[in-house]
Amino acid sequence: MQNKSELRQIYLTKQKSLSELERKEKSQQIAEQFFTNFPLENVKNLHVFLSIEKNGEVETKFIYERIWRDFPQIHTFVPRLFGEHLEHLEFTANTELNINSWGISEPLANDLVDEKLFDAVIVPLLCFDEKGHRVGYGKGYYDRFLAKCRTDCVKIGVNFFPPVENFFELNEFDVKLDACLTPNSVWKF
């Protein structure tokens, strides 16, 4: 069994090793998996993260830009760091962004919304297992956030790589995903 710290290092390195073209192509494939496998008729409010380019994360713009274009009835929201927690703000094509000290783009506005508003959340992660447990960056922001979401909110991870076969240690604060999308597969838990 590998521990989360080891997995973080391994998968952050793997993520960063992808070329810009590979990252773009795989991110587009993940977006296609999202639109093909998740019916959006019951989604009014979608929470999505803004990718951290220096970490080589899945580029979520292929999801939210298509939402804006093809599903204008769906409102999109993104997080902003606030102390040990995430705040949530509406995100549109006209939203002004600022880069925080971690290098993450965040909205400048202050019109915060409650976690209970979201019907689905696109969740960042470094790796996951076949049961829907994820390894993030280790600060617990998303676990604290997801624990406050409605029970019917669909939590969808996005990742470039297939699941980890060697299980990792879990703790009582870990929040399980409902699904995880990779370029070639959809995992539902």
Uncertain segments: none
Report the strand count: 11
Distance between the termini: 21 Å
Shape: globular
- Order of strands across the widest beta sheet? 3-2-1-6-9-10-11
Biggest sheet overview: 7 strands, mixed
- In round numbers, the mean pLDDT is 93
- Percentage of residues assigned to helices: 25-40%
N-to-C series of helices and strands: HHEHEEEEEEEHEEE
Radius of gyration: 15 Å
Structural class: alpha/beta
Total helical segments = 4
Beta-strand percentage range: 15-25%
Structure commentary:
The radius of gyration is 15 Å and the shape is globular. With 189 residues, the protein is of the alpha/beta class. The protein is built from four helices and eleven strands, in the order ααβαβββββββαβββ.
What brief labels describe this structure?
189 residues, alpha/beta, seven-stranded mixed sheet, two-stranded antiparallel sheet, 4 helices, globular
SSE layout and pairings?
Layout (H helix, E strand, L loop, with lengths): L3 H14 L2 H18 L7 E3 L13 H10 L4 E8 L2 E6 L6 E3 L5 E3 L12 E4 L3 E2 L5 E2 L5 H8 L5 E5 L20 E3 L4 E3 L1
Parallel strand pairs: 1-2, 1-6, 6-9, 9-10
Antiparallel strand pairs: 2-3, 4-5, 7-8, 10-11
Task: Give a concise summary.
This protein is of the alpha/beta class and 189 residues long.
